[in-house]
Amino acid sequence: MAELPPLNALRTFLFAAETQSFKRAAERLFVTQAAVSHQIRLLEDTLGTQLFQRLNREVRLTQEGERLLPYVRSAFKSLRIGVEQLKTDGEPNRLTISVIPSFASRWLVFHLKDFQQQYPEIHVILQPGLGLETFDNPGVDLAVRFGIGNYDGLRSEILMRDSMIAVAIPGLTQSESITIEQLKTLPLLEDFSAGSVGWNNWLVDQNQNPDDFRIALTIQDSSMVIDATLNGQGVGLVRKSLAQKLIDQNSLLQVMETEIPTPFSYFLVAPESHFQKGKNKLFADWLKKELERSFLPEYLAYYGS
User: Fold this and answer.
1) Longest dimension (CA), the chain
2) Contact 198, 189 (CB under 8 A)
3) Which of 270, 265, 262, 290 is nearest to 156 (CA)?
4) Which helix (H) or strand (E) holds 73?
5) pLDDT at 138
6) Could you give the 3-state DSSP secondary structure of residue 146?
7) Residue 40's closest CA among 11, 75, 79, 69?
8) Which are the contacts of 171, defined by CB distance < 8 A and separation ≥ 6?
9) What's the pTM value of the predicted model, to 2 decimals?
């Protein structure tokens, strides 16, 4: 690697370029104007090119100076971020996320590849679990939870609402959609885990008598209901967030348009101080953008309302 110019000279260049004045740069750096001039001359001699045009009361960047500026600005920005991370985070490249298993297996693991490509220096560790993360373990950075968001002593950022939809494998019925009358002839599968809505509620909402339908299987596990549906065992009433990728892949079909909102939503949860860590900010920003690409805007509760 070619030897770099002195760091102090590059820092002085950045201040002088942004203020367009050796005098103002000196004031911000708490040095004399002569010291600024000396550092700029040292940098120019090291690089073998003129970086500034010296005018009467100001300086202007030459073409070479304009080319250099964005690289120096970016380098010092990266240095500041790195130093700040070390001040507040003993492991700035290790990101541990506590996450509900269904969301981890049905959505997050498929999308993490993009985060890893953007930030290959960050080692991501997923800890699936249903229990509320208390953050007594200092190694956990963030948690993704499905609930109502009132977690004592923790900050909750709502990520996305959810809804229950009716899905089936292609070929279970003769068409991609089914009618209420057809639904009466098919076995129904439902998710009975916390925050989900069962067939009885769905049918009553549609002004139907649940006694006219056959609920064949109830499972207190969101992912297992999807597995049973994929196995062709009937029409599953499942969370849209967990089925969306399978629908996009045509492994499942949403066979009825009706969607029932769930009482729970997805939240990003952590102590307030955790949201200030650099790696956590990167993940939170990425997660919101990735959810935006995956779901319709009305589900993305972080927009407001």
Assistant:
1) 90
2) no
3) 270
4) helix 63-88
5) 73
6) strand
7) 11
8) 232
9) 0.67
Residue 236 lies in a domain: yes
C-alpha–C-alpha distance, residues 211 and 54, integer Å: 88
Q: Which two tokens stand for residue 11?
A: 């820092």
pLDDT tens digit string along 63-116? 999 999 999 999 988 887 666 655 567 788 899 999 999 999 999 999 999 999
Say if CB 262 and CB 162 are below 8 A apart: yes
Helix 22-29 with 33-47: angle, nearest 10 deg: 110
* Helix residue ranges per DSSP H, 119-221: 180-183, 199-205
Q: What is the DSSP code (8-state) at residue 259? A: -
Listed as ranges, residues in the chain with pLDDT below 70 are 1-2, 81-88, 296-305
The per-residue pLDDT for 300 is 55
Residue with tokens 């130093």: 83
Q: Are residues 276 and 135 in the same domain?
A: yes
Both tokens assigned to 89: 């985070």
User: Range of 62's domain?
Assistant: 7-88
To which residue do tokens 């019925």 refer?
173
The answer on 194 and 104 residing in a single domain is no
* DSSP bridge partners of 164: 239, 260
Could you read off the pLDDT of 131-147 as tens digits, one per residue?
878 787 778 999 999 99
39, burial (CB in 10 Å: exposed 0-12, middle 13-18, buried 19+): buried
Extract the tokens encoding 268: 């990003």
CATH of the domain at 274: 3.40.190.10
Identify the domain boundary among 88, 106, 134.
88
Say whether 275 sits in a helix, a strand or coil.
Answer: helix
197 in the same domain as 270: no
Look at residue 173 in the predicted model and tell me its pLDDT: 79
Note the residue count of the chain. Answer: 305
Tokens of 262: 């769930």
